[in-house]
Design brief:
GO terms for molecular function: RNA binding. This protein is α+β, with helices and mostly antiparallel strands. It has three domains: 82 residues, Ribosomal Protein S8, Chain: A, domain 1, CATH 3.30.1370.160; 79 residues, Alpha-Beta Plaits; 86 residues, Structural Genomics Hypothetical 15.5 Kd Protein In mrcA-pckA Intergenic Region, Chain A. Helices cover 25% and strands 29% of the residues. It contains six helices and 15 strands. The strands form four sheets. A six-stranded antiparallel sheet has the order 10-15-14-13-11-12.
């Protein structure tokens, strides 16, 4: 059976990367780390590695703790702890009484530095205390410390913090079950966000919709399990699983909405 048939054509480079990781770990008896993966990439990684008893898979801070996850792939006899991951925790403060900073503000300023998104993990903003926490790959930590100095109109100075002090903030999701006529993006937005299909198409064409953090402009884009959908000003949803089809050939699905 062709492994690639289970994934989108544009996902083939990532599939090849995971296969290469698997081969290198098996042949060279070494531990390799992924970048920070979005939920769909994490699903692909776990689907390929599976329960292969030749390998040990460890996840930073454990499963379902981070929105963007980093994995360690090791020989079956190896063990990896959080402190072994190539991750640096960075911390900065801002005057919360005078400026309002949200997640998109931090992400936009970060990406304006020209850094690969895969090198940034979760972003935590503690609005009451004016604290920003970033999980970044060690490869870019020094650059971020030097160059990431402004968010909106606020001057910020990031410093290194101990990874062991970081406490993940797992998100709360509500689970829903329904049937849909197709797995097109516009159809799922209509169902998940309770709006008309016309309005769903308009949001997509306005480029207000992202799938796995990337803008999707086609209403006909097909959604797969573990895809994360983000709609501006309406929050996030994800397709958890496809449960089969009804006699009328509608898809039974489970999906989740992020509790705001």
């Amino acid at each position: 059976m062709d492994l690639y048939q289970h994934f989108r054509p544009e996902e083939r480079p990532f599939v090849d990367h995971v296969l290469d990781m698997r081969d290198r770990v098996e042949q060279q008896f070494m531990t390799l780390f992924t970048d920070f993966l979005d939920p769909r990439e994490a699903y692909i990684f776990e689907s390929i590695i599976g329960n292969d008893d030749r390998f040990n898979v460890d996840c930073l801070f454990g499963e379902n703790q981070l929105e963007r996850t980093m994995y360690a792939l090791s020989p079956y006899y190896a063990s990896v702890e959080d402190k072994d991951f190539p991750v640096q925790l960075l911390e900065a403060s801002y005057p919360a009484k005078f400026i309002d900073i949200k997640h998109p503000d931090v992400l936009g300023s970060f990406l304006s530095l020209g850094i690969n998104r895969k090198k940034l993990g979760d972003v935590t903003i503690e609005e009451t205390t004016g604290i920003i926490l970033l999980l970044v790959h060690q490869d870019i930590a020094g650059f971020v410390l030097r160059e990431f100095t402004q968010i909106k109109k606020a001057q910020v100075t990031f410093t290194e913090a101990l990874l062991g002090t970081y406490r993940p903030h797992p998100s709360t999701w509500t689970t829903h079950q329904t049937t849909v006529s197709s797995l097109r993006l516009d159809v799922l937005i209509k169902e998940m966000y309770q709006m008309s299909r016309k309005d769903a198409k308009a949001l997509i064409e306005r480029e207000w919709v992202k799938v796995n953090f990337k803008v999707v402009e086609s209403p006909a884009f097909l959604i797969e399990p573990n895809d994360l959908i983000s709609v501006r000003k309406k929050g996030r949803a994800r397709l958890t699983s496809i449960e089969g089809q009804t006699k009328k050939e509608k898809w039974r699905i489970l999906y989740q909405r992020l509790v705001q």
